[in-house]
Amino acid sequence: MARTMYDKIWDAHLVDEQDDGTCLLYIDRHLVHEVTSPQAFEGLRLSGRQVRAPGKTLAVADHNVPTEGRANGIADEESRIQVETLEKNAKDFGVEYLEMMDIRQGVVHIVGPEQGFTLPGTTIVCGDSHTSTHGAFGALAHGIGTSEVEHVLATQTLIQSKAKNMKIEVNGKLPDHVTAKDIILAVIGEIGTAGGTGYVMEYTGEAIRALSVEGRMTVCNMSIEGGARAGLIAPDEKTFEYLKGRPRSPQGADWDAAVAYWKTLPTDEGAHFDKVVTLDASNLPPLLTWGTSPENVVSIEGAVPDPAKIEDAAKRTSVERALAYMGLEANTKMTDIKIDRAFIGSCTNGRIEDIREVAKIVEGKKVASTVSAMVVPGSGLVKEQAEQEGLDKILIEAGFDWREPGCSMCLAMNADKLEEGERCASTSNRNFEGRQGRGGRTHLVSPEMAAAAAIAGHFVDVRKV
Amino acid sequence: MEKFQKVEGVAAPLPILNVDTDMIIPKQFLKTIKRTGLGKNLFDEMRFTKEGAEIPDFVLNKPQYRNAQILVAGDNFGCGSSREHAPWAIADFGIKVIISTSFADIFYNNCFKNGILPIKLSQCDVDKLMEDAERGANATVSVDLETQEIKGPDGGTIAFDLDPFRKHCLLEGLDDVGLTLQKEEKITAFEDKRGADQSWL
User: Fold this and answer.
1) What is the pTM of this model?
2) In a mutagenesis test of the A interface, which of B84, B111, B186 is the best target, namely the one with the most A β-carbons within 10 Å?
């Protein structure tokens, strides 16, 4: 029977299936960070259990780490304790830990692929919802809670029931300055934040195939914002090229065997999808969010919605609440909205290509005097690469802060946060109330759009810059 | 984990769509290395001013809902991050049942690991229970997991669906890790085969 890629990976990892349909799935790769793991390791200690497969587990601190003055340690005591706890737990249980000053340290979802820890056809979990990022390689990757982190540490398996298959077909060729970020924002705008609930989404079509592996990671990263457990993109030559020679990628004869296997992963012709969504990339404008849910998507040519025009009472109330929080008037043109801050980074858009695009936009220009802008590379290796290319100089010259790697203001657990009422053009993934700091107002955009807004002081159509 | 018992009492209405995990427990409270004590920060930024004073309008600050064990909420409850701090905070506050039209996937899973029963109902049933909840102290609701029934204040009964394995684990208060380790031989056999077929892993 014709199978989807999700079906194939699922079947290949099935350890047990109970009569009631509950399955036990084998986990090949487990990424661990400091925020969602302490209670899991504590659970192991209390029950006298070990980590079953330390070699399949990789730990790195990213949420709490400072992005400046790192050599002086972490000032905030709770943050410091959390990071130290991860280090101790990794050591006690024999798990590899990339410490804060290690060049390989970074946002866990950037580190995994960089190290070749992320491989096609594998199952990957992490106590972090943006684990869906790794689906860009054709890996079944999703976030889990801390109890499940403990379960995976102890058993290298996860109790699961199978999700349904959804295909997101993105046809056509993306216009210039319209990016992977705009594709995924368009998808979420279309299906809504609960549209993917209960599904694994596979992205296909010309526009997806044309994306770089990094762009594909941006798309899969925000699958969770569409409600999906995981996003998937079939591996191809670009994927193999990206992975070849990475520290943990297979070598020699193993590499050839692995590639041969990876080529069997793509969805069979005629495989059944429970739901299909089709999108045309060729007339997609740059997009941004206006509200406090990632589904609140609008074209840069558009305006803030008018709740008076919404018939459904629950939706109208929801839009009114969002506009009040965001400090926006209905019908305001998006290009008239001024920003105070720009944040470029995160597991969504903190990779080298993102930084290159930003540098292209801002080269020879200056950040508006009313804007404070920062670039936070996704990892030490991204930072090093950018510096080798001289991108840091371009950014600093333009007035950007050039920081050290981590999650930073994507969720503001470290010192980087918005003040109450501040408005931010952010390349991150969530615009929830308070996400980037209590009372902070987040607009999700692509790196190019964030860069252009930082220069102009307000949102602009990056195609016209 | 404690065994899930029948729950009876007022239900707190939270008619907001897409209640996200940042609302449920803002990130400044994720720095703990413990599971306990998060109830006081549940819905922190909706419940308290920046200075820490209670916001009287927020449902859980109203006298009739301060001890609510049931929450009735808008669609897509628990969307956002995988933080189990969200169900930890909910459980620590004393809420044992959440009723909505839908839940985000990871949050839904996390509830069962913490003795919380998330119930999915039709829009019509949720609307009815939301109305009942708005009536406060005069309208108690009971949730019986054993029979999979919710009894409303006016005698009406609403049945709900639940995966039988999840139900069994909640009722018995079972520990997943312990259950899975009973299948250790199967895991080992799988690992042996996988090591032979895909040596690069």
Assistant:
1) 0.97
2) B84
